[in-house]
Amino acid sequence: MWGGEASYLVGNPVAVDGKLPSTFKDYVLGVVLAQIPEDGHSSRITTFDGINRIGNQLGHFDLSIDFKSKETTFLLYHQHPFEDASGFQFQNWPDGLYGLNIRRNEGGYSFFNLKGFLLEYLYTKNQTGDDFTIPGSRFTGADNYFNHGQYKEGWSYQGLGIGTPFIPTKHEVLEGAALSALYFPTNRVILYYMGIEGIIAQRFNLMAKASYRLHYIRSDTPVSEPSHRQFSSLISLEMPLLNWGSTRLKAQVAYDKGGILPTSIGGYLGIRSELSKK
Prior knowledge:
This protein is mainly beta. It has helices at about 25-30, 45-50, 85-90, and strands at about 60-70, 70-80, 95-105, 110-125, 155, 160, 190-200, 205-215, 230-240, 245-260, 265-270. The protein folds into two domains: about 1-55, no CATH class; about 55-270, no CATH class. The longest helix is centred in the N-terminal third of the chain and has 9 residues, at about 25-30. The radius of gyration is 23 Å and the shape is elongated. The mean pLDDT is about 90.
């Protein structure tokens, strides 16, 4: 993300008259090369861009290994996030998503046949420390995932975060639950997630998901106790209804409880039919 202008940037020292560097050279430096501009402070570029880089850069490394047997496929993976050079050099380890996905290639004929099982663990507490300046290091800390000093809505679109749903924006959390005044106010998270998919009695497709996460406040001292806890779950059941059109009935129930999202329960009931022939 790079360039642009906004009224809230007028008079702000991170921009020049409300405008951000938007030339083709800025694109090459900020997006293609991710280099700090040589003119770190000028009538066109602020000190903010000179200390950091032009624009908002972030991404992740996706590392995985799989093993396939005759009946089962195992996938072990890790997604490591970075928002600056420290994250790119793994200075924010062990932050990231860790997962194990197990898929059954062939089903049996028991009452319950397991099709898939997923375990995930998300950790985002490190963020290369809480201080921007790290003594004795050429890297900077306080990564502050998804937030940005120039783009006040950070890595979001229409009020929702682009990426994991377990780091919500300020519009999604309960009033009083925000742990900072930033757009992503609760981005220090430990998450446990489980999903299961199977077939019951060779007729009913079952899918269940559950997550339990802990949110921590940013602090200069280690914080051992979470400020908020959140549980979320979903169970879905699908079954054939009519042979004509492969008509199926689907029902879902979801439940949330904790200090981040409103306590709520919701359901869905629908009928699906495929009219076209293959």
